[in-house]
Amino acid sequence: MGNILLGIAGGSGSGKTTLANKLVECFGSDEVSILRHDNYYKSHDDMTYEERTKLNYDHPNAFDTDLLCEHIRQLKLGNPVQMPVYDYTVHNRSKEYVEVTPAPVIVLEGILIFAEKELCDLMDIKVFVDTDADVRILRRIQRDVNHRGRSLDSVISQYLVTVKPMHEQFVEPSKRQADVIIPDGGYNEVALDMLIQRVRWQLRHHND
Question: What are phi and psi of 176, to 5 degrees?
Fold first, then answer.
C-alpha cells in the first residue's frame, strides 16, 4: 500500500506526543497509525521490581528494535500488528497488546528512534523536536509524578543518572539524522502546518 513512515524523535518531554496527536487531529485516525517507541521496551519478567528500577531505560539497547522493525514492515505491507503495552508503574511490559492497523501515514515517535540505523532506513520523513532542557525536565516531572506513579525524588534521580547523560550521548547526536528540526514540537503552529503540507505532498507522491 502507498503509505509513509514519519519518525518523530526528541528528548524526553520535548513535545513528541503532542506533535503526533496534532497530526492525528489533522488527518484523522483512519489516515494515521501511531507506534510508540516506549511500548517496545524489552520485557524483563525474569527480574524483580527492584532490579527493573535500576535498569537504564534511556539506552538504545533497552528496546526490542527487531520486533519494532518487523511491525513496521508488516504495516507497510498492509498487515495489522499487535503492539506491546508498557506499564510504567512496574517498569515492565504488560500482558496486553494494542492492535495497530495499516494507514496511509504511520507515525513512529520516541526519544531514540534516530539512534538506530535500521529504523532510520525505514523512515520517509524524520522530524526532531528540539526543546530547551529546563522545559523538558519540568514536563517530565509533571508527567511521571501525576500519570506514572513515580515520586519526585525518583524522577530527579533517574534524570541525573541516566536521562541527561544518555540524552547527551545518544539523543542529541541523533539530531543529525533529521530532515526537519522543529522547536517546541506540536506547540509550533508554523512548523506544524509546514509538516502537514509536506506529509500531504509525500502521500500524493507515494500514490502516483
Answer: -65, -20
Q: pTM of the entire structure? A: 0.87
**Radius of gyration, alpha carbons of the chain:** 17
State pLDDT tens for residues 149-178.
Answer: 788 888 888 888 888 888 899 999 999 999
Is residue 23 within 8 Å of 199, Cβ to Cβ? yes
Q: What is the CATH number of the domain that holds 159?
A: 3.40.50.300
pLDDT of residue 207: 60
In a domain, residue 146? The reply is: yes
Would residue 206 count as lying in a domain?
A: no
- Asked whether residue 205 is assigned to any structural domain, the reply reads no
Range(s) of the domain holding residue 76 = 4-199
Question: Which residue is listed with cell 539512534?
Answer: 115
Maximum pairwise Cα distance, the chain: 54
3-state class (DSSP) for residue 58: coil
Give the separation between CA 148 and CA 126, rounded to whole angstroms.
28
Helix (H, G, I), strand (E, B) or coil at 83: strand
Mean confidence (pLDDT) of the chain: 89
